[in-house]
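Re: the request from the purification team.
They wanted to know what the chain is likely to look like in 3D before they choose a buffer screen. I agreed to run a prediction and write the result into the notebook, where they can find it.
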Amino acid sequence: MDQAIELHKATSGSEWWRSGVIYQIYPRSFADANGDGIGDLKGIEQKLDSLAALGIDAVWLSPFFKSPQKDAGYDVADYIDVDPLFGTLEDFDSMLAKAHSLGIRVMIDLVPNHTSDQHQWFQKALASAPGSAEREFYHFKDGLGANGELPPNNWVSMFGGPAWTRITEKDGTPGQWFVHLFDSSQPDLNWSNEKVQEAFEEILKFWL
């Protein structure tokens, strides 16, 4: 005798996440729609009916933003664009519309702790002088020692080695150090800076 499967139902309203079932998707390896061997947003869209049949409440997308891909997309070079590996903004909009039509919420992994060193904010910081507004987006410090040749402190990166990297200034001389709790290509943002907070508010508005 056939027995109907009762699907999970999350709490309604803003507290849905407390009891909701969230399915994490790593875009690169989840589903490849164009046959290039790399998963993409269209591939995710094609699988949404199957995910809906599982009774999930939301999908959580690992980073798909434009990135040099030195750390699986967690080194973001542009927070308001899709990496061509995964498709386009139009592909995201299409996937989002399909998910919502199925009652599936979409969560994105934004990565606010740091950017890629290729992000325009960091490139502007490198091109600007110590103490400038551009450098205040990150944590730049003078080094210790007679000529600043030592890092500002003994912090260690999560990936091993010093959490500080020294830059070369525009004139070719050794310069300040910047902190990166992860890879040296992922400079940490300065969240004490209101300009950083305002920039991320605009990023959130873009995706919402």
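For the purification team: Residues 120-205 form a domain with the Oligo-1,6-glucosidase; domain 2 fold (CATH 3.90.400.10).
Please add any questions underneath this entry.
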